[in-house]
Design brief:
Elements (H helix, E strand, L loop, with lengths): L1 H31 L3 H12 L5 H13 L2 H29 L1 H24 L4 H9 L7 H12 L4 H32 L4 H19 L22 H28 L6 H22 L6 H11 L1 H9 L2 H12 L2 H15 L5 H29 L2 H4 L1 H19 L10
Helix pairs in contact: 1-8, 2-9, 3-4, 3-5, 3-8, 3-9, 4-5, 4-6, 4-16, 5-6, 5-9, 7-8, 8-9, 8-11, 8-15, 10-11, 10-16, 10-18, 11-14, 11-15, 12-15, 12-18, 13-14
Protein name: MFS transporter
GO molecular function, one term: transmembrane transporter activity
Keywords: Membrane, Transmembrane, Transmembrane helix
Length: about 425
């Protein structure tokens, strides 16, 4: 019997190792495709500054003008401008191609960042800061450009596309986790404008490297054969879900900063929030490797709604360590939800307007983040930092209700083959 048990253990170990190897093979196969490694490196370089610019602008403006209110207003203006300009830039990309549109749009964005830097440096009037930062709205939806390439390359392989979408979501989380840390280091270690300057260089260099891989670029059509993504069946409920999900992110960030400040550890807020992104990043990679059978958006949203209660409960305990653990676990629901939702967007959007469809999603997210930040800030100031955590929990529940209502009306396209 002991010998038989030993043999069974060996068989089990070999089976487990083989299963892990198969899961890793999914990512190996992605980057075995010609050109995918180069465009991924370029995309990551260009995407990292997206997490840097906001923090860099706030530090740069507040340090020069002595007003966080002005810094917040300038960055909010840039956020609103990006939400409005994003779908227009994406429509041009779909019509004329990524390289022909993304590169000049990126140049405009970089010039906007440099103009902001110069306006701050030479003490230009306040209105010039708003005008300069609005120029950064020309930044293309970099993650969307990459997802569009994967959708084109893997159009006949839904399993591989699921893995690619999971990787892209993990990359998003990684960049939003590392970007603010890098910006804080640069602005604190060198000079206030260093974060903006380095971010502009990385954005332009990464975009040039990304667009240089023309062989992987999706084809274009002079005129779209499909309807506007807004008219595609099921898109509007999805955008509403994304807006509610964005509110989760915006409210959670403000609530965490307020709670850490109330505990006398405001400097630790960034590290605590980074754990939420780390949890999402790890979950995204695992979700892409495991390929769960027939995941549904409603189920993912239900998991997110349940887990978003954890930070609220942890905040009531009063320990920042407990809150950090809760955010790490809660973040694990984010990536699977976003991956499944992005897959649904790709299925419901006409192929020749895919960039526009995904840009509309970003607009929904940005709108939700702005609304969630405002609601979370109001709750933290007028109620309490602990009560502010009810806002992201409520937003997650709202996203679940919207998705469930959509499914009840027969929109069963929210199943994403993994």
């Amino acid at each position: 019997m002991p010998q038989q048990t030993l043999q069974d253990d060996r068989v089990h170990k070999k089976t487990r190792i083989a299963g892990e190897g198969r899961r890793l093979d999914g990512y190996r196969r992605l980057f075995a495709l010609p050109g995918t490694r180069a465009f991924t490196v370029g995309n990551l370089l260009a995407r990292l500054p997206i997490g840097m610019f906001g923090v860099s602008a706030v530090v740069m403006i507040a340090g020069s003008r002595g007003s966080y209110a002005l810094a917040g207003a300038v960055t909010a203006t840039g956020l609103a401008a990006t939400a409005l300009a994003g779908p227009f830039v994406a429509r041009l990309v779909d019509r004329h191609g990524q390289a022909r549109v993304a590169v000049p749009a990126t140049v405009v964005s970089v010039l906007g960042s440099l103009a902001l830097l110069l306006c701050v440096r030479f003490d230009a009037p306040d209105w010039t800061l708003f005008a300069a930062y609005a120029g950064t709205a020309a930044t293309p939806n970099i993650g969307g450009l990459s997802r569009a390439r994967w959708a084109h390359l893997l159009r006949d392989d839904p399993d591989a596309l699921h893995t690619a979408n999971s990787f892209e979501q993990a990359a998003d989380e990684l960049c939003f986790m590392l970007g603010p840390v890098l910006a804080s280091f640069l602005t604190g270690s060198f000079f206030p404008e260093a974060g903006t300057l380095v971010g502009a260089v990385l954005l332009l260099a990464g975009m040039l490297l990304f667009t240089a891989r023309r062989a992987t670029e999706p084809p274009t059509r002079s005129r779209s054969r499909g309807p506007s993504p807004l008219r595609s069946p099921g898109i509007l409920p999805l955008l509403a879900c994304f807006t509610a999900t964005g509110a989760v992110f915006g409210a959670m960030e403000v609530a965490t900063i307020a709670h850490a400040d109330a505990q006398g550890h405001r400097a630790a807020a960034g590290a605590v929030l980074a754990l939420q992104a780390a949890g999402s990043c790890a979950a995204g990679l695992a979700y892409g490797a495991l390929k769960p059978a027939r995941p549904r958006l409603t189920r993912c949203l239900a998991a997110m709604a349940a887990l978003m209660v954890l930070p609220w409960a942890a905040a009531a305990v009063g320990s920042l360590v407990v809150l950090a653990g809760a955010l790490l676990v809660a973040g694990m629901a984010t990536a699977p939800t976003m991956v499944t939702a992005m897959t649904v967007v790709q299925r419901r959007t006409p192929a020749d307007r895919l960039n526009e469809g995904m840009s509309l999603v970003v607009t929904g997210l940005l709108t939700g983040i702005a609304c969630g930040s405002a609601a979370g800030g109001w709750a933290a100031e007028h109620l309490s930092p602990v009560t502010a955590y009810a806002v992201p929990a409520a937003a997650a529940a709202l996203a679940l209700v919207i998705s469930a209502a959509d499914a009840a009306q027969g929109m069963t396209a929210d199943t994403a083959q993994a």
